[in-house]
């Protein structure tokens, strides 16, 4: 087992200090499966309270300075006021997630619906989300479409691609300077036969056609079991088309469990490709977001745990000896190269992360610090009738 020398320690801590992880507003609210939502005590009743909770996560970890919003779940009258509230709490508003999957009108799809009036309504919502970005100062519009078909022959696959391309084009053309369109793919659900953006290849092709402001989102729960996600990361990074992650864990389908809980080794392999592509720095433009639901576990601690899991995987990936890896790869030393990677993965980085937090004036154990803080007792007493995240009733 390799020891972490002083130089490496400094390099890794410096890189970790620059890391940014965005938490999702909906993860703070009640959520569940289609069978049951188990409400929790103290959950936020409005977007302001979700932001207050996100600010607690940031105060304890110093790596989660932004919160993603989902419209209309986080609809407010005055977005500039919401942005100001966030700033007062020490965080900022992040990606705006559009939602064209919850209206009765969208039974046969939103932007790929056969009815032009429904398509118009859906596109208008996407444009409204860009208006909101102008007010919140958000850089990213995150698009996921539930569009697809359940039965062969139900609708024309190719025509639906044309409708998708047209809607994306109109939205893309509305983007201002410095704004991006992030397209998220998903293999299946709620459509069970053919999803209109089912995989990274489809998302990549549309983003390529759109132009430089369009990039792909990898939601780690949106693939077939066994998919090599780190390959997708490497490919998209090399092509300059990776825009963001929606991090979560899955055992079966789109489980939305805490990132790093089901397969920490996969998370390490993903972060290794990020380090390999020099994409951890915020200037590299990759948004590292969580997209999770905490149906049975307490929400704020679950989000802290998730943030720490990403940090741990990142620290291990930063420990990979790049020179030794390149040398063993070049020499065709299969076992040696694998050992270089595994050495880093097997290193216990928790003491280093505790040291980093102490350097930053934080409690070295954010989970314990939250438990001691009294915040949960305060919100449990103050908040009655917490809001549901928006689905799963
Ligand atoms: C779809 C998805 C998408 C939505 C979120 C709530 O499964 O991953 O990112 O916006 O869930
Ligand atoms: Mn997602
Ligand atoms: Mn999902």
From TrEMBL:
Domain Xylose isomerase-like TIM barrel intervals: 77-272
Gene Ontology biological process terms, A to Z: L-lyxose metabolic process; rhamnose catabolic process
SUPFAM superfamilies, per the entry: Xylose isomerase-like
GO molecular function annotation: L-rhamnose isomerase activity; metal ion binding
Domain of life: Bacteria
Keyword line: Isomerase, Manganese, Metal-binding
PANTHER family, per database record: L-RHAMNOSE ISOMERASE
Name of the protein in its database record: L-rhamnose isomerase
């Amino acid at each position: 087992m390799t020891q972490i020398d002083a130089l490496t320690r400094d390099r890794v801590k410096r890189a970790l200090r620059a890391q940014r992880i965005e938490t999702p507003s909906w993860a703070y609210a009640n959520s569940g499966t289609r069978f049951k939502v188990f409400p929790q005590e103290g959950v936020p009743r409005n977007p302001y309270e979700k932001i207050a909770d996100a600010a607690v996560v940031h105060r304890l970890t110093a790596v989660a300075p932004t919160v993603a919003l989902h419209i209309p779940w986080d609809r407010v009258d005055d977005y500039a006021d919401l942005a100001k509230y966030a700033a007062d709490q020490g965080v900022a508003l992040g990606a705006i997630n559009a939602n064209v999957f919850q209206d009765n009108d969208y039974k046969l799809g939103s932007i790929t619906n056969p009815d032009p009036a429904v398509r118009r309504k859906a596109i208008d919502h996407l444009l409204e989300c860009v208006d909101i970005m102008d007010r919140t100062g958000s850089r990213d519009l995150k698009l996921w479409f539930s569009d697809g078909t359940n039965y062969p022959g139900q609708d024309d696959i190719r025509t639906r691609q044309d409708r998708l391309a047209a809607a994306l084009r109109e939205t893309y053309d509305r983007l201002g300077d410095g704004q991006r369109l992030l397209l998220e793919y998903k293999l299946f659900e709620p459509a069970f036969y053919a999803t209109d953006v089912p995989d990274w290849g489809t998302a990549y092709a549309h983003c390529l056609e759109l132009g430089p402001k369009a990039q792909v989102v990898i939601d780690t729960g949106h693939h077939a079991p066994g998919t090599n996600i780190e390959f997708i990361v490497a490919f998209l990074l090399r092509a300059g088309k990776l825009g963001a992650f929606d991090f979560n864990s899955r055992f079966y389908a789109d489980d939305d469990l805490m990132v790093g809980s089901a397969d920490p080794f996969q998370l390490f392999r993903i972060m290794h490709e990020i380090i390999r592509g020099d994409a951890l720095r915020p200037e590299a433009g990759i948004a590292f977001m969580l997209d999770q639901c905490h149906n049975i576990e307490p929400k704020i601690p679950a989000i802290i745990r998730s943030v720490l899991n990403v940090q741990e995987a990142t620290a291990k990936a930063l420990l990979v000896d790049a020179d030794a890896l390149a040398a063993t790869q070049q020499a065709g030393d299969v076992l040696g190269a694998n050992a270089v990677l595994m050495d880093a993965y097997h290193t216990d980085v928790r003491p280093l992360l505790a040291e980093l937090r102490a350097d930053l004036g934080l409690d070295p154990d954010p989970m314990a610090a939250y438990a001691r803080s009294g915040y949960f007792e305060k919100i449990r007493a103050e908040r009655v009738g917490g809001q549901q995240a928006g689905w799963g009733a």
